[in-house]
Amino acid sequence: MIQIYPDKLHNKLAEKLNKCYILYGSNLLFIKESKAAIYKVSKNQGFTERFTILLDHKTDWQEIFSIFKEFSLFSRKKILFLILPEQGPNIVIKKKLIVLIELLHSDIILILQIPRLTKRQENEAWYKTICTHSILVVCQELERRAVPFWITSRAKKLNLTLDDNSNKLLCYYYEGNLLALAQTLDKCAILWPNSYLTSTHIKQVIHNAACFNPFDWINSLFLGNSQRALRILRQVQTTDSDSVILLRILQNELLVLVKLKRKMLYMPLPILFDQYHVWQKRRLLLNHALQRLDTTKLTHIFTLLTRIELLLKEEHNPSVWIELEALTLTFSEPEFPFSF
């Protein structure tokens, strides 16, 4: 299987149009632009009929198979875009995908959007079968440290140059939302074509469009970055997110941390990471948290979690979010008063 990034897809499409593409990840901008690029080249080669289907337990597979098997002198070439479930395909979907891949022919292009994959799923027969016929386009979210370089590159394509302060402003106000960031850069290109932009320009067009999820908050907690964690928590609160979900995810992550801390005394950490199915990308973070948070600190954190749990039983208690802020500070301030 060939694996490429979205910025290299145009070159690959210019070489040859493949029968199957996997858009792997959940970055909305990368998925949108990759799909558009495939559609554009496909249309030029006669693929004018498009179908989009979200796969779930109610999927009509006969309808999908009929799209593949429909042959006539007058039928048009087709593009079938299938979106897999966020949690991964069930047994039925896996079996049907294997059959579907075998039915691929020159008059149809299959695009699969796969939001996420576990290591176990990557080793399963359905995925290996798909990979033998596919080009995989990595559409995952960018690491924070990569965003400034992406902004510079994107601006260059629009004949724009940004100073450092402009870049930092864009990183801050559009964190986790490349789609909105790209739209803002497009707007800049219209307002100030072929220009060198400073923070004065950027302040005229920016708005707070940052998007965070519970794991962004938890990652900042584990790193001890209270300022960033508070910002994320307050942003999440404005989106009417459920505090219960936030708390449950944190509880699960902390329980794993406690188990690791106990067992690492007599078992190597890499083996424990494998046992608890910790993703490679999270291992460095958890290792840092294990070194930083001692048993006493974790006990205090669980005490505060219990207090928040009791508050949650009181419907719509506004003090829950205040307590979550106190919890956030507890992760980084060794002498923070727990009676706050």
Write down the Rg.
24 Å
Q: What is the N-to-C succession of helices and strands?
A: EHEHEHEHEHHEHEHHEHHHHHHHH
- Number of separate structural domains: 3
Largest sheet: 6 strands, parallel
Family: Belongs to the DNA polymerase HolA subunit family.
EC number: 2.7.7.7
Domain DNA polymerase III subunit delta C-terminal: 214-331
Domain DNA polymerase III delta N-terminal: 21-140
Q: How would you explain this protein's 3D organization?
A:
It comes from Candidatus Erwinia haradaeae. InterPro entries: DNA_pol3_clamp-load_cplx_C (IPR008921), DNA_pol3_delt_C (IPR032780), DNA_pol3_delta_N (IPR010372), DNA_polIII_delta (IPR005790), P-loop_NTPase (IPR027417). Belongs to the DNA polymerase HolA subunit family. It is a single chain. The protein has 340 residues and is of the alpha/beta class. It folds into three domains: 2-138, Rossmann fold (3-Layer(aba) Sandwich), CATH 3.40.50.300; 144-202, Helicase, Ruva Protein, domain 3; 214-330, Up-down Bundle (Zinc Finger, Delta Prime, domain 3). Helix content is 56%, strand content 11%. The protein has a six-stranded parallel β-sheet with strand order 1-6-2-5-4-3. A two-stranded parallel ribbon has the order 7-8. It starts with a strand and ends in a 10-residue tail after the last helix.
